[in-house]
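Dear support,

I submitted the protein below through the web form. The confirmation email said the job was done, but the results page showed an empty box. After a refresh the structure appeared. I'm attaching both so you can tell me whether what I see now is the final result or a partial one.
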Amino acid sequence: MNDGGAKPETLLRVAEIGGRGRSLVAAQSLRAGQVILRESPLLLYSAFPFLSSSVSPYCDHCFRLLASSAHQKCQSCSLVSFCSPSCFASHTPWLCESLRRLHQSSSSAFSDQPSDRQVQARFLLSAYNLAAASPSDFQILLSLQGSGSSNGDPSSAAAGFLHSLLSAVCPPLPVSISPELTSALLAKDKVNAFGLMEPFSVSNDKRSVRAYGIYPKTSFFNHDCLPNACRFDYVDSASDGNTDIIIRMIHDVPEGREVCLSYFPVNMNYSSRQKRLLEDYSFKCDCDRCKVESSWSEGEEDENEVMEEMGNEDEEEEMEDSEGENVEEVCGNGVDDESNFPHAYFFVRYMCEKENCFGTLAPLPPKTHDASRVLECNVCGSLKEDEVGGNQ
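What the results page shows now:
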């Protein structure tokens, strides 16, 4: 995929930003559609609960949909299937035996655990397996943000339960596993894992995660409710590196500007966004969009209804008023104090209109000096001609 010239590793640098901590900023001017990072996962694990009654329809390594007549099931543990011999080769003897033992000895205590606890068990098995297979990669995992929970914290009890269960069942490892290590690993998974979603379908407005992956470099991106970059993956369409994450710029940003992703669909309303960020990432968002929306009174219309009005009734006026504006002022970190809705332009231009999609649009990678006028949705993959077009 064309990234517009420069190599991704020269496009970003790590910086400390007051109130935001470690951040990734543009090391040079970045262009709309430019690929600024492509990264393979450090580890991947299935999002299906361990004791789920439904069998995963995906390869347990690359997570493509399995063909009904051409896949290979592990005959030793009988718990996972693969789409090819090369994918099956990733299934190590330790992981296979651990899965088999855990399934055979599944106590009522484990079967009574919520589904997310069972998925956490899958992550820990993958992490322990990584420690044995690639100690250097395991150290990278340990270096990521996220610290273990304190006593009394509900997550501390979960870590204690899973540590006791897995240490009693799994074969010995060449690394020492402690309750503290288990707790730290779960914390790093919580704040650094990216979900690979099931294939998009217009009829399915409740898409589930098929797998989770840890992408160390991608985890450096901070959140913004009006991002200037977004992530793409091509799990079912790419021939090589299908589980890679690709980060692409939504619009131009100057050198020194922080590059941010949204950790969830940008159409979520203010209260839902704040609740999600606090529960999953333990912080309150104070981005420019949140500053504006926090001032809306509880008695006013729901934000989604307000945005729908602006997108439908006033779309022509909004587009007309915005043509001369700098996109960075409405989509990045600047707020137009004269407007109650400085982010409306983002919704009109960069939100996918397909039913039940809620994806974000970004230009295709530029092949010339000019930005592409074709926008691609990072959820459904549909293409749209940019009605505004041109460089900002």
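Response: this is the final, complete result; the empty box was a page-load delay. The longest strand covers residues 12-17.
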